[in-house]
Each structure stands twice: as structure tokens, then as C-alpha cells.
Design brief:
6-stranded mixed β-sheet
């Protein structure tokens, strides 16, 4: 809901209600923060709320699941139909990847999966 403070001219009486309303609005706007997937910034025209882009990578599984968590390594396109390994990896206990399907029977068969960093939890999710 927009706030439109009263406009005072020289010599007008300034009421306590007006000042209190302005102070409340300043305090309220100062408490804006982003939730999962959102970020707030102070811009020249006021506050700006932006969507946080989720990171997308390609991965190959490097082992079997432990508690639904999979180890993985990042891969990238070298040429069409050729994937090279990058240096980024995750284990079942550190930066694991989780299938959207919840399948815990997948294997490290060389299949390339697209994974995204979930905005709410920060974990890698692949499908």
C-alpha cells in the first residue's frame, strides 16, 4: 500500500500524527528483506526487489546414494556429444545432489544430468 505523506507549506502546522506516520513508514521500509530466491537493494528511486537466478550446471553421478544424497562431478560441453570434467564435485556429505524423483537406485553410469541450485535450500537438485 503506497504511503503519501502530507505536503506542508511554510507556516503550516506540522502535526505529531504526520511525523509519526512518516517515521513509521521509514522504519517499515528499512526492514524490507529478501526471502528465498529474492534479494532487495537500495536503488536511486527506492527499494528494488529482484529474483535471484538459480545456478544451472551439468553433472555426472560418481557413486550410489546415501540417504537420498548422491556424489557428483560437474561436466561441461567440450564439443557436441563430448563432455569434459570440471574441478567442481560434491559428496554425499558435502554439497550432495538430490534427484527430483527421489530415486535412490541411480548409478554412476555416465549419464549427464542437468542440476540446479535450489533457491530455498541451497542443495543441488537434478532431473
Amino acid at each position: 500500500m503506497p504511503f503519501y505523506p502530507p505536503v506542508h507549506k511554510p507556516g503550516d502546522a506540522v502535526r505529531a500524527d504526520d511525523v509519526n506516520a512518516q517515521n513509521f513508514e521509514i522504519q517499515r521500509l528499512g526492514n524490507i528483506s529478501g526471502g528465498p530466491g529474492l534479494v532487495t537493494r537500495q536503488a536511486p528511486g527506492g527499494f528494488q526487489v529482484d529474483l535471484v537466478e538459480t545456478e544451472r550446471i551439468f553433472i555426472k553421478l560418481t557413486g550410489t546414494a546415501t540417504g537420498g544424497a548422491y556424489p557428483w562431478k560437474e561436466v561441461y560441453h567440450a564439443t557436441p556429444n563430448t563432455w569434459n570434467d570440471s574441478t567442481r564435485t560434491g559428496t554425499t556429505s558435502s554439497d550432495a545432489a538430490y534427484p527430483l524423483s527421489g530415486d535412490t537406485t541411480l548409478t554412476a553410469d555416465g549419464k549427464v544430468w542437468e542440476a540446479v541450485r535450489a533457491a530455498t535450500s541451497g542443495v543441488w537438485v537434478f532431473d
